[in-house]
Amino acid sequence: MTSRGLHGSLAAVVLLTAGTAHAYRTGGELPELRGTERVAWSTSRVAYRVHEDGGPGVPLSTVRDTAEQAFGAWSDLECASVVFENRGIATSRARPDDGANDIYWIRETGLWAELGLGADALAITDITYERPEGGDWQIAEADILLNGAGYRWARESGNPDEPIRSLRAVLTHEAGHFLGMLHNCDVGSDPGAPACGAMPGADAHVMYPGYVGPAHYALSTDDAAGACFLYDCAVVGCPADQTCTATGCAASCGGEVCAPGEICGAAGCYSPSCSGSDCPGRCATPTDCAADEVCVAGHCLAAGLRDGDPCSDDAECASRACSAAGYCVATCSEEVPCPGGQECMRDLIAGECVPGAGVFGDQCSESAECSSRLCLESESGRSLCTRTCSAVSACPVDHDCSRVDGRDVCVPTSSGCSVHPLQRPVSPLLILVAIGVIILRQRPWRTR
User: Fold this and answer.
1) Which helix (DSSP H) or strand (DSSP E) does residue 61 occupy?
2) Which whole-number Å values give the CA distances from 258 to 255, 290, 411, in the listed order?
3) Looking at per-residue confidence, does 186 or 424 come out higher?
4) According to CATH, where is 3.40.390.10 located in the chain?
5) pLDDT per residue over 319-375, tens digit each?
6) pLDDT, the chain, mean
7) Phi, psi for residue 322 in degrees, rounded to 5
8) Rounded Cα–Cα distance for residues 115 and 60 (Å)
9) How many CB atoms lie within 10 A of CB 215?
10) Per-residue pLDDT for 219 more than 80?
11) Between residues 423 and 128, which one has the greater pLDDT?
12) Which of 83, 116, 290, 408 is buried deepest, with most CB atoms within 10 A?
């Protein structure tokens, strides 16, 4: 059971004062979310999808590549413990309550207007915030909506006077909203924010509410400070193979903590930009590595779990790939096929090999019949293959992420179910956790 709150444009209270050392603003300043200092994602890994249609002037491949570049501007910050993962293609219209984080183009002028958006608005980010009982507000879902009705687009374009808008600049700005940033100032419609005219150089920041083109490809120092405040590794933690340091998450090699930008190899920490003999632990084939190591993407890495073993993080697997279903998988591409009996799912940025067993939604009688090794038994007696879910790996439309027999799995809406992991005996049990939900729309970014 959930309670719904406001869904619409919102204004924020003023935080900037004469003694404030920064100009960035975050969701904790919104009156609806007062009481939570850091309003951010509850996980350091956040998944998103790109709609299959692409946009006017920018095909799907361009949108996907540009989205990676835009999100990367924020996740590449050494002081911020957050990673954005492209989890494939969306095939339906973005909705604020479908459990997925989508980038979606609106091509109909009437539909854009129905959302309460003016023709000068380039994009907007809808964010769903939730507060578990007794907890703090956090981001539960975010959708980026782009104006495909009133503008022509290109991956990169020139100054604001040109008729074609830069997708890279706009997505970098919207990615900031996606992770919890607000506009740094107001150009006239948000009385709660400081006036942009009173802030010299306000348009030098990515989170400025007006379009200035290529100047917003790179984050300002203040933009970066806001992201690092929200995703300080001392608060949100680091991936399993990294350690939190004063400058952010750093790779760990045994007892050694690597310098910023270095990764862990067979001979210790090294820079991935090295070459030749300067690169310890490089490999071309598995035989180039020690017996207790595996060759992954040209590097000798410590061996981990085998393909098919349950996992919770990429670092646990020998292949360095933990699937959304929660088990280790081999990686693949057009050049590198999967082992026999497995299929390469190339709708993902990095292809994953899926066992040739039942896929999500197929009927099953036991867990071995499902590639996820999870068979969900419904009250009607009809059992279906399901998978695990989380804030990073959302369920499809018409499915809820529910706690069933001790695991978070995708359950068809309004079903009472039990899940059979690895054929262990189970009892039908479904736990529903009450949370508060507010869906808010970040103010649109407008052309100047």
Assistant:
1) helix 60-75
2) 10, 21, 42
3) 186
4) 2-236+436-446
5) 777 776 677 778 776 666 776 666 666 543 447 777 666 767 788 887 767 767 788
6) 74
7) -105, 120
8) 24
9) 17
10) yes
11) 128
12) 83
Q: What is the pLDDT of residue 112?
A: 87
- With beta carbons less than 8 A apart as the criterion, state whether 122 and 165 touch: yes
Question: What tokens were used for 406?
Answer: 């001790």
Residue whose entry in the numeric block shows the structure tokens 């350690």? 243
At 50 the pLDDT is: 94
For residue 146, is pLDDT > 60?
Answer: yes
Q: Which residues pair with 102 in a beta bridge?
A: 49
CB 310 within 8 A of CB 387: no
Measure the CA–CA gap between 144 and 442, rounded to whole angstroms.
Answer: 10
**Which value, to the nearest 10 degrees, does the dihedral of the CA atoms of residues 262, 266, 267, 269 take?**
10
d(CA 219, CA 202): 13
* Residue 55 · residue 153 · CB < 8 Å: yes
Buried b (16+ CB within 10 A) or exposed e, 76-112: ebebbbbbbbbbbebeeebebebbbbbbbbbeeeeeb
Distance, in Å, from the CA atom of 197 to the CA atom of 208, rounded to the nearest integer, reads 11
End-to-end CA distance of the chain, in Å? 43
- Per the CB < 8 A criterion, the answer to whether 387 and 371 are in contact is no
Q: Binning pLDDT at 50, 70 and 90, where does residue 62 land?
A: very high
Cβ neighbours for 252, distance < 8 A, ≥ 6 positions apart: 241, 242, 243, 258, 264
Q: What is the DSSP letter of 336?
A: S
Are 89 and 49 spatial neighbours (Cβ–Cβ below 8 Å)? yes
Nearest in space to 238 (alpha carbons), one of 251, 228, 226: 251
Tell me which H or E stretch contains 267. Answer: none
- Mean pLDDT of the 105-117 span: 87
Inter-residue contact 145 to 93 (CB < 8 Å)? no
CB atoms within 10 A of CB 385: 23
Report d(CA 106, CA 127) in Å as an integer.
17
CA distances from 229 to 53, 180, 192, 283, 305 (A): 35, 11, 21, 38, 34
**pLDDT over 80 at 418, yes or no:** no
- What is the average pLDDT across 418-425? 33
Distance CA 145, CA 125 (A): 6
Is residue 186 within 8 A of residue 196, CB to CB? The reply is yes
* Bridge-based pairing state of the strands 299-302 and 331-332: unpaired
Assigned architecture for domain 2-236+436-446 = 3-Layer(aba) Sandwich (3.40)
